[in-house]
Amino acid sequence: MKAPLSAATAQAVREALSARYGVMFGTKGGVAWAAAALAFDIAKMFGARVPSGARFVGDYITTIAITIFYPAGKTFAPQEQIEIDTHETRHAHQFVAEPGVMPFEYLRNSRRRGEYESAAFGDGLAVRWAITGEIPPTVDSLPHGALLEYACTPADLQMAQDQLEQLATSIVRGVIPEGPARTVIATIARVQPEALDPTALELIRAHSPGVL
To answer: Are 80 and 38 in contact (CB under 8 A)?
Structure first.
């Protein structure tokens, strides 16, 4: 029987991502985040398709440059934390790859925002599949719909859906995207291999040389 992921494994994953990508972790608290919440509420009042300030600060994980900010006082199960850390590390990696471009494109260009998020969702899908051996059963079940709260257009959503469908098709064959997902899967295989799906492990070894 496959073992559930432990808190120690989640911490090992976090340390591996910090070592490989330089990411740091913080919490949303203090005057700066209160001001951010107010800004979201004002934007929403004027019709912007954004979450409320309370939701943005209390529910959303946000990456700024290479720091991943979690809501203060909120806890996550080990697998959920691992998937979130993987997703957010992809955003940090995107920032490092395009330091003078990514933050501005993410904020002002909904299509690019959809592209950035699709890549991050793909990393999360890869990790979930490696752990559970499962992938969303239909294209409509892929997480592109979450982009509705990122002020993406229907065309952006379709693009994200297409990207995620391509990623999911590769992942179930054992092809893991280059980047954070590979670091995460390799770390779990090292510290708690029994938490990974045996069939997924075989496919990763066959089709993603060097990950394990």
So the answer is: no
